[in-house]
């Protein structure tokens, strides 16, 4: 133990050399995104086999390939008559969906057939019922259309054909497609479990702010952001945690027992009550990213912790200022979760700036904008201070202004869309 070091009630050495070496370098925003995505991919949990009904919201671990031709057999696409040769045709039976019909006996014969029913061998055409006439003595006549009225085997896909790649989000459409291919289960990567810890004695969890205390806005909102990024967020938010090292260590250690990702708010600086860095040291954490050259959002971090079961857990340190915390969420948490889920790195759509956007020197500037979905143009919003949420509530995403540049009207720039509800798609720009 170094001179002057003491041991707290939680068994944490206070005042000694930290166990985690703080990276003095500040990462470029683009590099930070790539680094956390790679860390997520490396730590992605093993796939599990789930029944189709339980796979919604998960991620395909393997490509979805057909187990048979689609359709697997020739099927009628209309209600009518399967006929053989030229007409008129003598009716010799009926074919309903779900059965295997006998072959047609020869030219001049027909069977009544339902949509989706298997076409009998020997059929040369299907006559629509509304375009046919039937005589009392059991004959059918009509003119066949030039386009065949049935579906051939493999018309949609052939057996073994890849329909969707690994990393595809499983939604009801994917589930239906898998069922049509003959699947009963899917190998998927489960959505990560997330927890949230709020640091800061000055925060109120209810009522109006005042008398030196501010209302916690991240506790109610961050879990919703995490759910939109595909997490299974815990129902309870921990905190506000007391501004002591012991309390920080205890809260984070407990959250890491059940969560794949723990987000914390505040404490990312090195002030007198900022205990996140010493807490990570006490837990033997390793920094993936420690400080990113982005404004707002400085400073933010992502660290990994080895669990007792051998699996890697992550801690995302979000700044205490509300808009800065969301910048850290879209910058670090979003690509990390994509990696953990086995999904592609999120691509950034392009938009055209309709108004100037200031640069931030050597830092990337993430500027809140509203996007005109028709014109694909981005308009900066007001009230965008790092402690403000008014602009965020009106915005569609963050325009990315590269270091050393300014955004001029007409410039094409990337935009980081704010996360939407499952199934929604960002409509503001093109790829």
TrEMBL record:
Keywords: Magnesium, Metal-binding, Molybdenum, Molybdenum cofactor biosynthesis, Transferase
Superkingdom of this protein's organism: Bacteria
EC number: 2.10.1.1
Cofactor: Mg(2+)
Catalysed transformations (reactions): adenylyl-molybdopterin + molybdate = Mo-molybdopterin + AMP + H(+)
Residue ranges of every copy of the MoaB/Mog domain listed in the record: 195-339
Coiled coil: none
Annotated SMART domains: MoCF_biosynth
Segment forming the signal sequence: none
Function: Catalyzes the insertion of molybdate into adenylated molybdopterin with the concomitant release of AMP.
Family: Belongs to the MoeA family.
PANTHER family linked: GEPHYRIN, MOLYBDOPTERIN BIOSYNTHESIS PROTEIN
Listed name of the protein: Molybdopterin molybdenumtransferase
Taxonomic source organism: Plantactinospora sonchi
Phylogenetic placement of the source organism: Bacteria, Bacillati, Actinomycetota, Actinomycetes, Micromonosporales
